[in-house]
Design brief:
Sufe protein. Chain: A, 6 helices, globular, 3 strands, alpha+beta
Length: 142
């Protein structure tokens, strides 16, 4: 039996939404120094909806699969819904990740929140800082 689900392998081998958006409305970049994974998310926003999303990820297969799945989960969604995306939801959508790879789904969640914060900041849109704080177990790593 494989350590990774078929969905993880599919999103790793055939990642969705890879690339760069020229003149993005929001960009978020996060990294984990311990594992070396770096994720960059680009957003194109139209009428408070994520019209397009792309990512660049330097990292392991789980990081690439998490980025791919996270972009699929937020594309076409309102920003307020994208802000609610959790790393658990990303992992569940991938039919699970090994415990020691859960940080990859956390990075995907953080990169999306960072890109939305960038959009809000660039456009002087007020936001609730609570929506953009790091998840509880992320702060343990710092």
């Amino acid at each position: 039996m494989s350590l990774y689900s078929e969905k993880v392998m599919d999103h790793f081998k055939h990642p969705r939404n890879v690339g760069v958006i020229e003149n993005p409305d929001g960009v978020g970049e996060v990294g984990n120094a311990k594992c070396g994974d770096i994720m960059k998310i680009y957003l194109k926003i139209e009428n408070d909806i994520i019209a397009d999303v792309k990512f660049e990820t330097f990292g392991c297969g789980s990081a690439i699969a998490s980025s791919s799945m996270a972009t699929e989960l937020i594309k076409g969604k309102p920003l307020k819904d994208a802000l609610k995306l959790t790393n658990q939801a990303v992992a569940e959508a991938l039919d699970g990740l090994p415990a020691y790879k859960m940080h990859c789904s956390v990075l995907a969640e953080q990169a999306i929140r960072s890109a939305i914060l960038d959009y809000y900041t660039k456009h002087n849109i007020p936001f609730d800082p609570e929506l953009l704080k790091a998840c509880e177990h992320c702060e343990e790593d710092e």
